[in-house]
Amino acid sequence: MCGRRSRFLCRTVRPAVNSRPGSCVQICDRHAPGSVRTEVYVVSRVIAIVLLSSLLLATASSGQTVTVGRLKYGGGGDWYANPTSLPNLLRAIEERTAVDVDERPATVAPSDDDLFLCPIVHMTGHGRVSFNDQEAASLREYLERGGFIWADDNYGMDRSFRQAVGRILPESSFVELPFDHEIYHSFYDFPDGLPKIHEHDGGPPHGYGVYLDGRLVIFYSFNTDIGDGMEDEEVHHDPPEKHEAALRMGVNVVVYALSH
Fold first, then answer.
1. Which of 31, 30, 26, 29 is nearest to 66 (CA)?
2. Do the domain assignments include residue 63?
3. Could you tell me the pTM of the whole model?
4. Is 55's pLDDT higher than 70?
């Protein structure tokens, strides 16, 4: 039931994708005020939640778990890369927030009906990304109905991914998100934007967004490889702080997607 009180710092959000009228989901911070975060930061988050409350949209039904999708695409790229990253992220969301998520991601193709059961889908890979006309139209409908795509470049998908997005939203363009964008502060605070996990081409990471009717519908993390960082630590032997930073950024993206 919407509006139920919680001992955590919570936001109650209303439905967007395939959810029942009157349903809601609460996104809560399990860190008690005054413990890890300062009281000033907690107060600033409360103010932000109040200001945004009239705009928040949920993507999950009350009493149901949230399913995060892994997008299976054509073109030859390894859409199945980083197999442990999403399960680790979903476990972190379950443990650290009050969002009830399915512990296993659902593999969905753009033309699958099950795509519309996932409020957020994640895609990654090293190679070429391609959507045919039917797939592009389906993904556009998915975004128009409140869906969200998080694309994380695993090194090598940049050019084809941008071209593929142009087929979905030809009227939109990629814009670099400023460090004060809410996606960097929705749950954990990233004052300098995306954390740098892997070097790739060197230089700083970049977080790009694609908007549809004023709503951020695609988030593209580039030159960092958040997915590699979220994998089991023995896969890439990343130091614990890199693994934690990647998980925290992943939590931020999902929390943002579920509340907008």
1. 26
2. no
3. 0.78
4. no
